[in-house]
Design a protein that fits this description.
The N terminus is likely disordered. Helix 4 runs parallel beside helix 6, helix 5 runs antiparallel to helix 6 and helix 7 packs antiparallel against helix 8. The protein starts with 13 loop residues before the first helix and ends with a helix. The chain is mostly helical and 216 residues long. The chain contains nine helices and no strands. It has two domains: 128 residues, Glutathione S-transferase Yfyf (Class Pi), Chain A, domain 2, CATH 1.20.1050.40; 29 residues.
Length: 216
């Protein structure tokens, strides 16, 4: 699973390639380093003889399975701050930048949790990762049908932002709008709530199905 710049981080892999040139992704670079680089001999010896402890991918929060809940709570709190920024008349950053950070904040936790859920051999880690992945995914589905933030984004796309923007900003903003529209933002409130409920059900059933295919 790869991190995307849109809210559908758990659905559509193609959007990452479409907007990858928009910025260099440097967040959580230690995840990539864990796969692409060998640990130094000094660090390995230090860990072996001095008892230094690190969490998964070098994150101290993930020394224990419960660390996933801390990552989730931090991501949710940051998301609330960013949503308030989107809705605030005193916003000073580009709208697309705030949406991008909101997406990244949630997706980097959800993607990591989903990877650990599938690949970690310890049941407690896999379970905590599953709970985190489902929780963040449910929040993503709610945001995909949030009329307030959609209306703010649409206003910026149609009328211009308070900050100067370029063609790439406009392109990415339109991708975000498309994500909303594909998730039924045009439906009435009751219908949108049903969409969220159905997607939440799919997330739970899909997670259960995958867990049984991996551990029959």
């Amino acid at each position: 699973m790869r991190m995307k710049l849109n809210f559908n981080c758990l659905r559509n892999a193609s959007n990452f390639e479409r907007v990858n040139h928009y910025r260099k992704l440097t967040t959580w670079s230690s995840v990539a380093s864990a796969f692409n680089a060998k640990q130094s001999k000094i660090r390995t010896l230090k860990s072996q003889f001095l008892g230094e402890s690190t969490g998964l991918f070098g994150y101290k929060e993930l020394q224990e399975p419960t660390g996933f809940y801390l990552l989730k709570d931090n991501a949710v709190c940051r998301a609330e701050v960013l949503i308030n920024e989107i809705l605030s008349p005193e916003r000073t950053r580009k709208m697309v930048r705030v949406f991008d950070e909101l997406s990244d904040t949630l997706c980097k936790v959800a993607d990591l949790a989903e990877f650990v859920r599938i690949g970690h051999p310890q049941e407690q880690f896999a379970y905590a990762a599953k709970e985190t992945s489902i929780s963040i995914s449910s929040l993503v589905e709610e945001l995909n049908t949030n009329r307030d933030i959609y209306d703010r984004l649409k206003h910026v796309v149609e009328n211009g932002d308070i900050c100067p923007t370029d063609t790439i900003d406009q392109y990415v903003a339109n991708l975000f709008l498309l994500d909303f529209e594909q998730c039924g933002i045009h439906l009435d409130k009751n219908a949108r709530e049903k969409v969220v409920a159905y997607n939440d059900y799919i997330l739970h059933v899909g997670s259960y199905f995958m867990s049984k295919t991996l551990n029959p």
